[in-house]
Structures are given as C-alpha cells and as structure tokens.
C-alpha cells in the first residue's frame, strides 16, 4: 500500500517508459555485437538497409510482420483477460493444419472464392480449439494455463510430425510435407495483386494475409474496446473481483478470450500455408508464437502498438538475414537474442525504470505543479 | 545489531521478584513507545502515540477499526518503520527495523491471521526461524522436549506431529502461542486473538495469558471487545483516529466509559428526515447461514425482512459478518443454508443467485470496497459508470457498446450527484474517495432499484460528500426503495436508519428502532457486552 | 531381445540424467515460490559454456564449472526480475529461454563459425562412461551380470551424480534448516518474514541452486552425452523436466521416477524409430514422444490425483499490513 505509484502523464507511461525499455534491450544487444567483434553501428546500418532498403526488402519485412501481428494480437487478447497464453506457437501450428486439411480436401472441388475463406475459417477454428482445451482446464479444473499451453505447444509439434510422416506425406516423397495445393487454395502475393492493376513490384512472400492481419487488428480493437464482451474481458483482466461484482463469470471470459486468442494465432497458418508454402510442412511457424510475446509486450497489448512492434521485428528478421550476409561473424540468431532481451526488459523488468523516471519527472514538474513527491 | 536489553530468561526471573503494583521506585517499563508517528499517503495512521507498559501485566489496547492499533503493533514488530518516535525496551532504546530485530528484542506477536504454514506440522511451524542448527535433527529433539514442557506448564497440549492445516482454529492459535513461548519472548502481542475462538477457547486463552504474566511475560492485547478488556487486562489504552485518547487502570473504568471513549463524543449528524412509511417486504431473509472455507460460521441463522420505504441499519464492529451478509445478498456468495426471497424469486444454497440476476431482480449494491469491487480502477470514469450494467439495452446494441450513450449516462450521473471533476474521460482512480463513491451511488441508483444494499457508504469520504450521500439515501427511501445500510460508523447508522439490527459474531444480537437508539447502548451491544435481555426491544 | 531390453534401460538412465538435474533445479526454485520455466534456457547456456570451455582448455572439470557459473548468472537475471523487481515470473522465464537460444548460436558462430556448433571434443576433454568396479568380472553372471555390467555400469560420472543427487535433495529439503525455510517460503512467505527470516535471500538462494543444477545438466548434454554443442541441443528437455517435476508433485523421489519414466519413453522412441513391432506394426514415434506432455496435462487437470503447487508460487512477495 505504501508503494503506490505516483501519477505519471500518459505520454511517459505509453511513450517514454516503453521506448526506454526497448532501448535498453538494444543497448545490451549492441554490447553483444561489440563482444563478438562486430561494429554495432555498422550493424544497424546493414539492418535498416536490409529491411527497408528496397521494395524487395519491404516485402519480406512486411511478410514477417504479418505473422507477428497475428501472434502478437493473440497474446494481447489473452493478456487483456489476465491470461498468459504461451501457446501461440502450438495454436499457430494447428491453425496451419486446419488450413492445410481444408485445402487438401477441397482444392480440386471448390473454387478459390469459396475455398480460401473456408480455409481461413478452418485456421481460426483449429487454432481456437487448440487454445480452448487449456482454457477449459484452467477455468474448470484449476490447472495453470501457462503450463498447459507450454505442454500443448509440444503436443502440437508431435502431432504435426506424426501427421506429416504417417498421414499427409506425399506418396512419392521422402521429405515430410504434403503435396502442393492447387491454385484454388492459395492466397495471391501482393506483387500479383498489384500486377492486376498494372503496377509492378518485386515478387516477395508478402501476400494478401497482411490485409487479413490488418482487418484482425481493426476487429480486435473494436472487440476489446467497443464490445460488451470486450468490456467484460477487460474488467476481468484488470480487476477480477470487480468483474464478479458486475455479474461477469470469469470462467466464461477465460474460455472466450482464449478461443479468440487461439483463432488469431491460428491465422499464422493463413500467412504461411495458404500464402507462401502452399502445402503442409513442419516448422512453418518458426518461433512466431514466441515472437508474439515480445511483440505484445512491446506494443503494450494495443493493436496499433502491435503493428509497430511487428514491423520492427519483421525488419529485424529480414534485416538480420542481410546483416548475417554482410557481417559473416553475425548470425540470424542475433534476432532471437534481441527478442529475448526485449521480453526481458519490456516484460519482466517493465517497472525497473519507473522509480527513477518518476523521480526525475516529479523533480522537473514540482515547481510547476507545486506538488511534493510523496514517499509513503 | 540491535541491543538486546533483557535476555528472555532474565526477564522471566526478574519479573517474579518485582512487585507489579506501584512500588515505591518505578521499575523500567517492559516496553515504552515515545511519540510514534506513521503516515500512509494522506492517512495519519498513528499520531504522536506514546505508551508505557509495565512488566508482567496484561495491557489492553482498544479502539474501533482504523483507530491505528494494528499499525502501531506492526511498528513494534518491525513490519513497518515509524516516521518518527522511539521505542524503549526495559528502559533502553532499541531500533526495530525488521521482525528479526523484534524477535531478538524479545517481542513475540500473534497475528490476527495466523502466521502458520498449513502444510507443516506443529513442530515444523514452531521451529521455523529458531531451528537450533543447520540440520533439523539437532534442534528437533530439543524442540519436541520444550514443546512438551510448555504444554505441561501452560496446559497447551498439541500433537507436535499434527499437520497445522488439519487442526481446529483454537489449536492453531495454541501453536501461535507456542511459537512465541518457544522463542522465550518477554513481550507478547496479541492482535484480535479471540475473533475466531469459541467462548470456551477464549477462556482457555485467558488462563494461558494469566499464567504467562505470572512468569513475568508482558502481554499486549489488541481488541475491540470491551468485555475481554474488562475481564483480563490490568491496564487499558484507548485509541481513536490514530491517537491515544485515554489510558486507564482497568479497575478504575467500566464498559460505558470505554465505549464512549472508543467512539468519541461525536456530534450526531443532523439530517432532516421524515418518519419512515414502510410498505410491503421487498426482501425476506430466513435462517440464513454461511460457513467459510475454514469451516467458520460467518453468518449464523439470520432472520429479518426489509420493507419498501425504510432504511435498515446493520451496526457492528467490522468482521462480525456484515461483509459476508452483503456478499450473500448481492449474489456474490451463495448461502450455506437458509434462503432469501426477493419478490417471487428465492435464493438458497441449492438455487444460488449471481450478481447479474440480483440486479435483474431490482437489487442494487454499493459495495464496501469501492477500489476492488465498486470500480475498475484501470477504467476511465465512463466505463466504471457502467460496471454491472454493461449489458443494459440502453447502452448499446447487441454486441457493441455505444460510447456516446455511456458517456452521456456518466455525464448525467456526474451532474446529478455533483461528481467533481465532471469529466467522464478521467481515470476512475483519479477521483477523490468521495467523488468515486458518489459515482458508484449514482450508478446503482440510476437503474431504479427496488432494493439498495449499501456498505460503508462514507468510508474515506470528506464531510461535504457525506452529507450529500446521506441525503440521497434518504430521498431514495422516500421514493419507496428498501435500503439496507451496513456501516461501522455509529453516527451514520443513527442518522439514517429507521430500524437497527446489531450484528455480533455472525448473529443478529439485537434490534432497536432508529429513533430510540443511542450510541452507548449500541456500542455495548456491538461489542457483545450488553445483556441480551435488556437489548431486545 | 534381451540385448534390446538392456540397451533400452541403459539408454533410459542416460536420457533421464539431464531431466533429473533440471527437475531438481525446478524443484528448488518452485518450492521457494518462484516459477521456473527457464530451465531449458539455463541448461542450453550451460551446455554451450561447457562445450566452449572444454574445447578451449581441454578440462572437463573447468568446463563443468563454467557451465554452472553461466547458468547461475542466468538464474540471477531471473531473480533480479522476479524477486527484486517483482516482475512476472513466466515472462522472465520466457525471456531467459529465448535469449539463451539466440545467444548460444550467436556466440558459437562468431567464435567457431560452424553455424553455432562448437568443435568436436576428444574423449579426454569429456566426461566419458566409466566402468564400475567388478563390472567385467560380473558380466557373465546370469541375470545380475548383464544388469550390473550393462545397465548400471558404463555411464558418465554425471549420471551417477544425478542419481545421488535425488536423496541429497530430499535430505536438504526435509532434513535441514535451509530446506524447512525453503519449503515455508514457497507456501507462506509472510510467515517466513514474520519469523525474522529474509524472504529475498531465501528465494535468491533457491534460484541460484536451480541455476547450478541446470548448468550441470547442460554440461552433461554437451560434454558427456555428446561431444560438442549443437544449436538448440536441449530440444525441449527443460520443459520435459518441468513436466516431470509437476508430475512428481514437486517432490524429489516422485519427480525422479517421472524423469525415469520420461527418459524411458525417450529411449523407446529412439529404439522404435522406423521399426515395425510384431503384432503392433508401425509405431507412431512422435506420439510416444508426446506422452510426457499428455501425462502432465492429465495430471494437472486433476484426473490422476491432484498436483498441488506450492501455495505462494508465482506471487511476488509484497509486505503488507
């Protein structure tokens, strides 16, 4: 009770503090680069050029960002309900499975305008189903959602290996992947879409999924901040007792929030399976589920922040590849490291900087506001 | 390292030699507090508190909730540090920064919520922090023998190998006492020790305390129960609003005197109020009981009804079941047995209600804890103003809420109830207590309830807002709403209630008409020291 | 067929070794009230440190020491976030895992340029299998001989350390002052605080012990079971260990048996890879590998007994009242 935080203005809370945390993460990353003999400033130049230096670079950056938007939104929606969904990775795998199953089943039967929405829906439903089981276990059986979602990540991976080795593997193939879908089960590349209008841009994996991702951002914004259910989700996340007082059932909120979270994570399958790979395969999620945690923490669980953070991470992924090419001592895993550091500083240590920022602010603001910093 | 003025063993020896009653030359007091001040934000929890407690006595500290007793004892036990002031033990100044310091200085404390590890055995609990060596084996034998010895000496037999979580509450308390004795404490602080005990267990506790003082241990008993203070203490200090208001020898005082000192001679709030005109019963409570997770009976066979157009006040020291009553009525908790009827609906253990249905039945609830229940502090005011009514048809469509409608409703509430500043966009946590409360009251009254249950409506609210809130409650009554008011402020109950029910230990121990009640009488009833016969009207 | 059984059982012990170290690590941390999903990351960092130091110095003991130090440093980061700054323990654990996964490869690649792998280690730079006394002499004794010589004997010294560790952890937890306080702080930190014991110091000790054991687990992987560090070589073992610890209901012996069970499943999965078992046919190996997770979820859901976590787990201690 004595440690009640002082009131800091909005721009410090959502501007200065988060940026400070990310900067700290980047400074530590710079130190690591310096340790292995790379020049951090040079690295930044290569990174930025690699990520934004050409239309081609932009395409890749945004393609990566698309998946991160989905997983970032997934983590954020759960966070708003006071839940930590570490299972984005597994939900994304199963979401991709859903898209793949529908595509493989119907790509010779249905035309694209029907099949693609159906496959997207399947991604959502499969992802949601994979999240609802841990949600149910938390809401009604009291098992901790963090542990169960971790377990479900591994279960998803095992299931996928089993299915691709024993069920979906293309008969004549040795590699663990399905046959390639027909054109009817694919989302067009953005380059192709621009091509319809006679605009030529470089061909990249960036596909129409990004439009769906942006639509999801809008939908999540409306849902969380405008809808009755969103109101109940936020009330539960912010103050579970007040929610009960208001007649909200926390168990329902847990189920609904996790279902939506899982559906969003499942959409990674839309981007990867329908948009890029056009077949079922292993490891197409490639850690996007975990990147979503960093994205949500950095973006403060708001879709707008998530878009910005996703682009930053997209840029790191794309620029990181370029960086690894230009400075051979640096590998792409530097990006994973930065991701970990951002989770550390923006998440676990989010309040580390608050006390001194608060002191500086109060010191600066004191003569104007006539307030005395109170330390109780 | 804090100085240890009196070794524990030494304390026990010397005390027997000194005559406790005013001997010619005053021996140093067991513990003396000098000018203790402690502030939490805007609240001055302790103001210049000085206390002197003689060795080998039972010293009572009595006061209403929030009088600062617990804060003071937390300071003595090193949980908080005082902003200013000094502590002396046996005449020598000590510095107590942590519980470790307090223990080293010979202070033991029995907390209101037992400080026991439920999954541990009695022996493990007793040894924790005083293990007597890196290996448990080294100390366990000795500890077991010492437990046996203490058990015999004080009649405190507990099975050392029993799991504490399996023990009844009274036995758990024995373990707490054994913990303190095991550490040879010379000063034992007990914070509301009898709240969860049966009368028999209480008697036994008192016998133990007397036995302890006979061996030179000094006992500080913090309580709000007058009867206990009179029964067991040698000396009593009365606290009110963070200050010491009286310091008496128990023999020189009586219940009336203490009750008056405790509640203070407050000016009765003047409130223009017509005579109530009660109509048909809106809410009927029959044989309502609630047993909590620990098996303690929080509500015990309550029977009453609430009529349209009257205010029924529930008086009582907090912790006697009022909060639980509010929760059961609001549908937050289901009763263990008995029922409540609202209109045609019946709520019972088998047909529990929930807050949403209770609202639909026309019951509005202003909760006691406005920060944790009444508002979502992370919401702006316009969102908090819809809490509980987020499904109202007026506030939006099928799926979406209408921000404009919500803001408009909040604005009109702010205007009607004079909430300042009248800014719906401002964060709920940024309003003062009084304005938060006005907003909650406005919200709960806005939906035209037939029943309003109100908990501590003016706790932490400034005087101006108190008047305003009181007037609104009376206006609502005059419009025919049935109102149940729970408050620990006797003034408030006396000013508002048409009928007063007094609760003690989960029971209704008396009923009295509002215009016939007086503070002292209520005080006696609340503290369980009034004669039952005289109370029933 | 006997050979198959014996080699599977021997593999079980090998596979269980890192699980045992990590499960005991998790046990210390979580019994003190600090969730530790960073076992994986600490083990990985330890494996990398061990392989690097072994490659540079040639001394497996120094390598082990380095693994322990690095893993303890990571656990201090976890402690700094969760204990000192009361950050979210799960978020912090995720951060440790991801940072370790990235950093080991970054450093490995920068130093050795083999895509994150470290150089292959000669046997003298590793902890090699040791023959227990009398193993050769007893080999031909029926029943006991093969069991002793081929299952019990012939493991790395670290495997024997793991098995010895379990009674030791049990002893520390239930028979020492430290253990009593550790168990108490995970159940009711306020009780510990009012008994005059520092909650912060206890919890730091616990997470550092966890780091130490994860470091040993990592060293086992990279300089005993394998002869080098490979990218992501822990491959989820930290989480299996976490599952084993939960499956063992936060108690040393049951956790140990869960580790053996999960190690056995691992050994079987390897054995059955691409094998057709008579009567059953082709065995879906990934599903066997998934069994530890399934068991744990089922246990957590309360369908086989109840896994009751330490009461104060996940809650930063804030002094109140």
Characterise the protein shown here.
- The complex is a heterotrimer of chains A (376), B (537) and C (321).
- Chain A has a single domain, classed as ABC transporter involved in vitamin B12 uptake, BtuC (Orthogonal Bundle), CATH 1.10.3470.
- In chain A, 73% of the residues lie in helices and 0% in strands.
- Chain A has 16 helices and no strands.
- Chain A is globular.
- Chain B has three domains: 8-106 and 186-263, Rossmann fold (3-Layer(aba) Sandwich); 116-183, no CATH class; 281-373 and 448-535, P-loop containing nucleotide triphosphate hydrolases (Rossmann fold).
- Chain B is 34% helix and 24% strand.
- Chain B has helices at 8-17, 69-76, 99-104, 122-127, 136-154, 169-182, 199-214, 226-232, 255-263, 322-330, 355-360, 370-374, 381-384, 403-416, 433-446, 463-478, 490-496, 519-526, 532-535, and strands at residues 31-40, 43-53, 58-63, 84-89, 92-94, 107-110, 187-191, 218-223, 235-240, 243-249, 281-291, 297-307, 311-315, 337-342, 345-348, 363-366, 451-455, 482-487, 499-504, 507-513.
- Chain C is mainly α.
- Chain C has one domain: ABC transporter involved in vitamin B12 uptake, BtuC (Orthogonal Bundle), CATH 1.10.3470.
- Helix content of chain C is 69%, strand content 2%.
- Chain C contains 13 helices and four strands.
- Chain C has helices at residues 2-31, 39-57, 60-84, 89-112, 135-138, 144-152, 157-175, 177-187, 189-194, 199-225, 237-247, 252-272, 285-300, and strands at residues 129-130, 155-156, 276-277, 281-282.
- In chain C, helix 2 (39-57) packs across helix 10 (199-225) and helix 2 crosses helix 11.
- Chain C starts with a helix and ends in a 21-residue tail after the last helix.
- Chains in contact: A-B, A-C, B-C.
- The interface between A and C is large, with 52 and 55 residues.
């Amino acid at each position: 009770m004595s440690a009640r935080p002082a009131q800091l203005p909005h721009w410090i809370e959502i501007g200065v503090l988060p940026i400070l945390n990310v900067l700290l993460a980047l400074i530590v990353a710079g130190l690591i680069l310096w340790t292995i003999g790379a020049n951090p400033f040079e690295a930044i130049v290569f990174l930025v050029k690699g990520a934004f230096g050409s239309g081609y670079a932009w395409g890749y950056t945004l393609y990566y960002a698309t998946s991160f938007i989905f997983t970032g939104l997934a983590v954020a929606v759960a966070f708003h309900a006071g839940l930590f969904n570490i299972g984005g990775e597994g939900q994304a795998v199963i979401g991709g499975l859903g898209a793949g199953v529908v595509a493989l089943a119907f790509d010779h039967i249905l035309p694209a305008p029907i099949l693609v929405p159906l496959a997207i829906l399947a991604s959502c439903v499969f992802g949601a189903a994979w999240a609802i089981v841990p949600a149910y276990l938390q809401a009604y059986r009291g098992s901790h959602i963090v542990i169960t979602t971790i377990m479900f990540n591994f279960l998803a991976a095992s299931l996928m290996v089993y299915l691709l080795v024993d069920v979906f593997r293309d008969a004549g193939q040795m590699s663990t992947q399905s046959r390639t879908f027909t054109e009817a089960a694919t989302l067009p590349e953005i380059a192709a879409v621009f091509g319809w209008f006679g605009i030529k841009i470089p061909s990249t994996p960036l596909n129409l999924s990004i439009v769906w991702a942006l639509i999801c951002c809008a939908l999540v914004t409306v849902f969380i901040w405008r809808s009755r259910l969103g109101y109940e989700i936020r009330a539960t996340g912010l103050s579970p007792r007040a929610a009960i007082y208001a007649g909200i059932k926390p168990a329902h909120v847990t189920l609904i929030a996790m279902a939506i979270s899982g559906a969003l994570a499942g959409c990674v399958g839309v981007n990867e399976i329908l948009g890029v790979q056009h077949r079922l395969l292993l490891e197409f999620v490639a850690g996007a589920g975990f990147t979503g945690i960093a994205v949500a923490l950095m973006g403060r669980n708001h879709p707008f922040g998530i878009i910005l953070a996703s682009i930053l991470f997209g840029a790191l992924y794309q620029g990181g590849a370029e960086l690894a090419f230009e400075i051979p001592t640096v590998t792409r895993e530097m990006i994973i490291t930065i991701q970990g550091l951002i989770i550390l500083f923006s998440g676990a240590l989010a309040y580390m900087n608050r006390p001194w920022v608060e002191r500086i602010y109060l010191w600066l603001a004191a003569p104007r506001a006539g307030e005395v910093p109170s330390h109780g | 390292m804090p100085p240890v003025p009196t070794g524990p063993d030494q304390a026990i020896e010397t005390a027997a030699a000194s005559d406790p009653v005013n001997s010619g030359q005053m021996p140093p007091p067991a513990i003396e507090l000098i000018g203790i001040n402690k502030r939490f934000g805007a609240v001055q929890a302790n103001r210049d508190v000085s206390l002197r407690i003689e060795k080998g006595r039972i010293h009572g500290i009595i006061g209403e909730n929030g009088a600062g007793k617990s804060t003071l004892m937390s300071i003595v036990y090193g949980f908080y540090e005082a902003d200013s002031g000094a502590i002396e033990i046996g005449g020598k100044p000590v510095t107590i920064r942590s519980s470790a310091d307090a223990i080293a200085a010979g202070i033991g404390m029995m907390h209101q919520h037992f400080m026991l590890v439920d999954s541990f055995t009695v022996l493990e609990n007793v040894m924790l922090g005083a293990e007597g060596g890196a290996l448990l084996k080294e100390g366990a034998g000795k500890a077991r023998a010492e437990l046996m010895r203490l058990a015999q000496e004080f009649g405190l037999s507990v099975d050392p190998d029993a799991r504490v979580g399996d023990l009844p509450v009274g036995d758990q308390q024995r373990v707490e006492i054994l913990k303190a004795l095991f550490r040879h404490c010379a000063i034992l602080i007990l914070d509301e020790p009898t709240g969860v005990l049966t009368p028999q267990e209480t008697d036994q506790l008192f016998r133990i305390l007397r036995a302890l003082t006979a061996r030179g241990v000094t006992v500080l008993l913090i309580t709000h129960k007058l009867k206990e203070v009179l029964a067991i203490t040698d000396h009593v200090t009365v606290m009110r609003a963070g200050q010491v208001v009286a310091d008496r020898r128990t023999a020189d005082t009586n219940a009336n005197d203490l009750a008056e000192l405790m509640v203070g001679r407050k000016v009765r709030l003047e409130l223009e109020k017509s005579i109530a005109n009660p109509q048909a019963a809106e809410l009927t409570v029959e044989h309502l009981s609630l047993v909590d997770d620990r098996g303690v009976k929080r509500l015990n066979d309550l029977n009453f009804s609430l009529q349209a157009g009257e205010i029924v006040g529930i008086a009582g020291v907090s912790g006697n079941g009022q909060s639980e009553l509010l929760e059961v009525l609001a549908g937050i908790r289901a009763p263990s047995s008995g029922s409540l009827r609202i209109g045609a609906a019946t709520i019972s253990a088998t047909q529990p209600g929930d807050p949403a249905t209770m609202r639909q039945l026309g019951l509005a609830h202003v909760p006691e804890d406005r920060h944790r229940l009444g508002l979502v502090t992370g919401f702006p005011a316009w969102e908090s103003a819809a809490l509980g009514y987020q499904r109202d048809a007026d506030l939006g469509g099928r799926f979406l809420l209408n921000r404009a409608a919500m803001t408009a409703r909040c604005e009109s509430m702010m205007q009607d109830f004079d909430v300042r500043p009248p800014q719906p966009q401002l964060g709920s946590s940024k309003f003062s207590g009084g304005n938060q409360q006005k907003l909650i009251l406005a919200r709960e009254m806005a939906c035209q309830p037939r029943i309003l249950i109100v908990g501590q409506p003016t706790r932490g609210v400034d005087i101006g807002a108190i008047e305003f809130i009181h007037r609104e409650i009376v206006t609502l009554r005059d419009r025919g709403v049935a109102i149940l008011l729970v408050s620990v402020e006797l003034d408030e109950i006396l000013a508002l209630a048409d009928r007063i029910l007094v609760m003690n230990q989960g029971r209704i121990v008396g009923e009295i008409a509002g215009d016939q009640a007086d503070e002292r009488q209520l005080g006696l009833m609340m503290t369980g020291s009034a004669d039952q016969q005289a109370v029933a009207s | 067929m006997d050979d198959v059984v014996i080699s599977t059982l021997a593999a079980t012990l090998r596979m269980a070794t890192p699980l045992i170290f990590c499960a005991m690590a998790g046990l210390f941390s979580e019994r003190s009230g600090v969730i530790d999903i960073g076992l994986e990351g600490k083990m990985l960092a330890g494996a990398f440190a061990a392989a690097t130091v072994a490659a540079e110095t040639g001394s497996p003991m120094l390598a082990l020491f380095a693994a322990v130090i690095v893993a303890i440093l990571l656990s201090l980061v976890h402690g700094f976030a969760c204990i000192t700054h009361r950050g979210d323990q799960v978020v912090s654990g995720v951060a440790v895992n991801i940072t370790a996964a990235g950093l080991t490869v970054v450093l490995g690649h920068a130093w050795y340029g083999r895509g994150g792998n470290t150089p292959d280690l000669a046997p003298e730079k590793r902890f090699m299998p040791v023959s227990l006394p009398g193993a050769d002499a007893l080999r031909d004794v029926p029943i006991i001989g093969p069991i002793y010589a081929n299952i019990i004997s012939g493991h790395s010294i670290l495997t024997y350390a793991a098995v010895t560790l379990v009674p030791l952890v049990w002893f520390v937890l239930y028979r020492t002052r430290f253990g009593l306080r550790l168990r108490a702080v995970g159940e009711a930190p306020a009780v510990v605080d009012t008994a005059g014991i520092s909650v912060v110091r206890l919890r730091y000790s616990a997470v550092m012990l966890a780091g130490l054991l994860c470091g040993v687990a990592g060293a086992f992987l990279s300089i005993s079971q394998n002869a080098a560090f490979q990218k992501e070589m822990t491959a989820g073992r930290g989480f299996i260990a976490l599952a084993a610890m939960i499956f063992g209901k936060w108690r040393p012996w049951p956790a140990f048996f869960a580790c053996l069970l999960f190690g056995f499943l691992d050994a079987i999965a390897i054995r059955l890879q691409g094998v057709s078992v008579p009567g059953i046919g082709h065995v879906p190996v990934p599903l066997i590998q998934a069994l530890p997770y399934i068991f744990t979820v089922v246990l957590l859901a309360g369908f086989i007994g109840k896994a009751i976590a330490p009461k104060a787990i996940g809650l930063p201690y804030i002094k109140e009242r």
